[in-house]
Batch of 4 targets.
Target 1
Amino acid sequence: MGVTNLFLLLAEYVSSYQWMLPDESCRDELLCNEYLDCLIGHIKEIEIENYNGYYDADNLDNFLLYYEYEIVYPFPRVILSEILKERWYNWREDSMQSPTKNYKIFSQPIKAHTFCEISERKLLDNVNNYALLNHHACTIRDAIISIAIDARDTVEFRNLRDNAALTQWFADNRLPQRIFNRIPKHGENGLGNWPGASPLMCSKFEAQGLLNTAIGQSHRELFNHDGLYKMFIVFKDENTVENTYHGFHVASDTAEVPLSIKKRLEHKLFQML
């Protein structure tokens, strides 16, 4: 089973490259807390996804330089340590990039950087996924970042700059992909469900689309909002090698969907309007 490798890049206090501009908005206690809250939101959004997280300890220290000299509460280093302690690893402790290779971005040399690390790992591994979580870290707005290695190989990876891009990328590139399985118990298109069983109001193809972006507190049970029917849809993990789920619709006032999930889905819907 494949896995996604997600690399975090933070804003810098001292720019390491011209396209790594420091985020002036972070040099303020209130805005710093907003910056960190936003990052926490990103990570919570993908907490049930199958991924390995990587960060750069040097990049982290660079981001924290300003706050090491200014008293900002709660302390950013403590917050970031809590955020990263479980599923995130400092790639410098097991770096794969080669000091003898030439890495370039926009035809300009780059070394000892997260971009080099992603590129080298992806070059060596054609099975797993690689992407950058660019948290207001650089001025590159392109959806794809391209790195040349020794003028022989070119490696591309996604530049995920906000929550919408992050969640959609997982929906499209999740490893393994979720597969919707229609079962007779719930029927299809609001028809054929067993007596007393909640119906599947939409088609299996529409259910697949809703499954791709469904959220939950664990992968065992996922939820989404079906705007067409103004109902929630519940997906149950079938615990198969193929990663299949079956699903059914429930009323909007149901207690079957946790309140925290309802709030997250309402927030996502609000962002789409």
Target 2
Amino acid sequence: MATIYKLWAEAYDQKEPFDIIKGPIDSFLLLGKKWIDYRKEVNALIPPVPTIWAEREFLRNALNYIERQYDWVDVDYDIQFSHIPGQLLISAKNTEVYCPARGNLIGEVNVSAKALFRHLPKRFIGDVVALQFKGNKLFIYSREFPARWTEQNEE
């Protein structure tokens, strides 16, 4: 009924549940409208996917710096991504690198260096690069990397 209601509203260019002759619409169409309104309320309650938008050149330079610091081919290590206001903090072993970024990541995402550097694109296109965390995966440019999310402890 929601689909039929949407089609009906588009056909008559209606914002309110009334038809062309200003009479009340069919009660089944009202069920469709109620379902649409309900879905909007539910979607408003669901938090967005944790996403960080990092400046492309800084991010590439930071990842290249970490890759040159440590040999990930022989010994794997974790790379941590976390967000502080205005900055993306990338940590690996004893190295911390900051990159201009904005977003909504609370906590820390850990990724294997081997997995990241083997499949990370050599070039980023656009001004910003989106890093998204869904499930147990970190997505960078539609490439997915197995990741672990840990929540920050507030003391």
Target 3
Amino acid sequence: MANWDLIGELTVSNSWQLFPNEVIADTFRITTTIANLDDWNKWKFKSAAYLRFRYADDSASIKYYVRVLDKPTIYVFAVPEDLRTQGYIIRTPAIIRASRYLPITPNANFADWSFKLEALL
């Protein structure tokens, strides 16, 4: 039976943040949680995030755009075949805020929300 393994949960910011755990999986569950609904709906800018993966050969995947959604969502982010055949299947996920108001808008002007990443084992 397959299980979800927690990779980490981070508060999205204007800087790239690495998750604390490396992953081997291709299938992920992402849960986004808004910290303060008033900030999100009235007072501050909304945002999304970019997720990308760093590989042991110092390459990186494309940036995947991830929106804030009301329920956990499953995504497939497969290791590229050329990297898989070379044995580069272990990767480190990273996130950064995605918004049309960047790069000039400081973190404090955005509504806080968290990005929880789990891998299917």
Target 4
Amino acid sequence: MKNLIYGIALLAFAGCSSYSEIARWDSTIPTNDGEVPVASFVTQNFSYQLLGFIPLASGVPWTKGDGDICDRFSVSLFSDKATLDNNLVSLRYALDRVGSHRIAQLRTSERDDSDWSFYLVNRHEVRTSCLILKDKE
């Protein structure tokens, strides 16, 4: 049992995290539909599951804090917070920080990888990105 707890702690500190970033733009280059972006946003969250279905650890989505970058190792043990819903919560927080709620080119991807652990532990990644457009007046 002690080895299992050490293994979970190792997973939590070795790469289970959430990353979010707002990149503000000062450009006049429009998107395909003629809109001019004011920023881009990307967030990704990771979780680990034992045997692919027992949650071990997960990064916590960005929903508070100052600045435009949240690169942290805030971990939630025995839960799976790497979901599209949680990434959209982070996106809404980023839109509030930028001051605009219009987006374009929203992309989301999910990826599972378990061969690195001989199929004992599955690593799940959810990534979401978009362009933030200027609010219409």
